[in-house]
Every structure is written in C-alpha cells, then in structure tokens.
Specification:
The protein is α/β, with parallel strands linked by helices. The chain is built from ten helices and twelve strands. The chain folds into two domains: 147 residues, Leucine Dehydrogenase, chain A, domain 1 (Rossmann fold); 140 residues, Rossmann fold (3-Layer(aba) Sandwich), CATH 3.40.50. The structure holds NADPH dihydro-nicotinamide-adenine-dinucleotide phosphate (NDP).
Length: 294
C-alpha cells in the first residue's frame, strides 16, 4: 500500500494522527505563517497541523526526504531554501517553473510538486481592485518577490512591467530574465532619491523590503507628485500592513493594497492545495493582525 492509499484508509478509521504541514527556513522563528494556517485549520475543523521548522541549508535534502517519508501533505519554503529545494522535488507547477523558485510544496499522490504562490497571492489581492489584463505596471525592487509578481502579472495579461531597483546590476539581471521568458514588455527605469513614476502607470508596487518591521518608518523614495491619482498602489510588506509608502499613496488620493492581503492569499492558496478546503481569509487575517498588534 502506498502513502496516498494509506492516508485514504486512515481517514475512515478512529484517528489520533494529524496531517502535517510546515515551513522550512533559516532563520524561521519569526515567520508567522503557522498562526494563520492553524487558525484556518481550527476554523474549518481540519485535523491538520502546521509546524515552524528550523532547517539549515546543508540539512534541506534530509528535511525534504523526512517530510516525504512522514507523509506530509506539503510544506512551505522560505529563505534560503526557495531555489535549493528544486532538485529534491518530483516536478514544478507553471509559475514555479518560470519564476525558478518554490515557496510551496504539494503532495500529489506519491509526488512532491513545487509551486510558487507568492505572485499568485499578490495577484488575488490586486484583482479585488483592478483587472491586471492590459495594465502598465511599475515595480520598485528586483528580488524574489518582484520576480514572482512580475511573472504572474505577465501571465495574467499585463501589457508592460517597468523595474526600478537600487542595485542597477540586479535590476538589469531581472529585466533580462523576464524578457527571455515572458510575453510582456519589460523595461528598466532609473533609481534616484526622488523616483519619478513613468507616465501611464496603472499599478505601482513596492516589492522591496523597505518598510518591513522594525524599519517601520522606511519608504521607497517615490516622488508622489509624479503618480497619477488613478494609479493603484500596492505594497508587499505584511508587517506593518499600513506602511509609509501606502500612506503617501493614500494622501495622493490613490487606491492602496497592503502586503498582509498578499501574505494571506498565498497562505490560502497553499492550504487549498494541501487540504482541498478553501479557507476563510477573514479568520486568517484576524489571527495575523492579533500577533502583529502584539
Ligand atoms: P530580496 O532580498 O530577494 O530582495 C530585496 C529587494 O529590496 C531588492 O530589490 C533590494 O534592492 C531592495 N532593498 C532592500 N533594502 C533596500 C534599501 N534600503 N533601499 C533600496 N532597496 C532596498 O527579498 P524578497 O524579494 O524575497 O522580499 C522582499 C520583501 O517582500 C520582503 O520584505 C518580504 O517580507 C516581502 N514579501 C512579502 C510577501 C507577502 O506575502 N506579503 C511574500 C514574499 C515576500 P537591491 O537589489 O538594491 O539590494
């Protein structure tokens, strides 16, 4: 009997065993995903658990083999494992393949498949406010989050993405990476102490780590007088949800989207992959807001 058949049979019987999920990272102690995942499991009466596990880079192969052997339903990866995990998996979903990084592993039968839900989480938040199809996007930042978001925007039909990054080299590398893979116009604009947003920007995104706790007064140096009032402005920073960047945009009269929504949505997509239940995002947001308020 394989693990999938065993799980099926197991569900029918008297059961003192939970289905397991986790996040593997290093350092990982401050990762809050457990809070929202377990709140969802409890709310939906799912007999699942979510563990926060410190995994050193040299132990990643053993950790993945252990999760496989113990029948985990899946697990998240955070820094520094998102790329390193790929050779230990049995396949990749479309986004993970194009992005070249995995933040969510899903057991499908006997296979462990790598997905990337960061960009999709962002996209779901964006879709609540604007249709990305045909949108002209300006993105500040060129790291992993920027790459995941740019790929999903392009797959969703955005017309153009302009990357603005402090390190020119990293910005140029991301532009080239995206140009080689996507059917979307990808260009670069210069970083400065007063970044002027290109004309016609429909969506402006902060995809840097500026503003993340404890840097709560940090703000990318955008000249908000250059931002059209009908631009939708989004931040990836989940904590604090209301960043100085979003405050500046709101003062300008723009509609804003916070990074907490992205965090919740990517978690929600993962839980749906693992359990088959699409969890209530309100329950997850309430749980996260409570820990961030502390
Ligand atoms: P990376 O380290 O890959 O990239 C960091 C980016 O931020 C780079 O573009 C870097 O520019 C820029 N940056 C950092 N500090 C500064 C600074 N002081 N001035 C100018 N630019 C700066 O990180 P990730 O892309 O993985 O993550 C970025 C942020 O996204 C993090 O804060 C993370 O918490 C958040 N995130 C949120 C998610 C959510 O669900 N809400 C999901 C994933 C990430 P340079 O290249 O010049 O160094």
């Amino acid at each position: 009997m394989n693990m999938a058949e065993y799980h099926e049979e197991d569900r029918m019987a008297l059961n003192f065993k939970q289905d397991l999920t986790a996040v593997f990272g290093h350092p990982v102690a401050e990762n809050p995903t457990q809070v929202m995942a377990e709140a969802a499991y409890v709310h939906h009466d799912l007999n699942w658990r979510y563990l926060t596990v410190e995994v050193l880079p040299e132990d990643l192969p053993a950790a993945v083999a252990g999760a496989r052997a113990m029948g985990f339903g899946g697990f998240n990866l955070t820094i520094p494992h998102k790329v390193a995990v790929i050779p230990h998996l049995d396949g990749l979903g479309e986004s993970a393949e194009v992005i070249g990084a995995v933040n969510c592993v899903v057991r499908r039968g006997e296979k462990l498949i790598g997905e990337n839900t960061d960009g999709r989480g962002f996209l779901e938040s964006l879709r609540e406010v604007i249709d990305p199809r045909g949108a002209r996007v300006t993105m500040i930042g060129a790291g992993g989050a920027a790459r995941a978001i740019a790929v999903e925007l392009a797959l969703a039909g955005a017309t153009s993405v302009t990357i603005i990054n402090r390190s020119e080299k990293r910005g140029a590398e991301l532009v080239e990476y995206l140009q080689n893979r996507l059917d979307c116009e990808v260009t670069r604009a210069p970083w400065s102490s007063a970044i002027s947003v290109p004309n016609g920007t429909d969506v402006l995104i902060n995809a840097t780590s500026i503003g993340l706790y404890p840097d709560v007064t940090g703000c990318p140096p955008v000249d908000f007088t250059s931002v059209p009032k009908d631009t939708v402005v989004a931040d990836v920073i989940p904590n604090p949800p209301r960043t100085p960047f979003l405050e500046g945009a709101a003062k300008r009269g723009c509609r804003t989207i916070d990074g907490l929504g992205m965090l919740i949505n990517q978690g929600r997509i993962g839980i749906t992959y693992w359990t088959g239940v699409n969890p209530d995002p309100t329950v997850m947001r309430t749980a996260l807001e409570a820990v961030f308020a502390d």
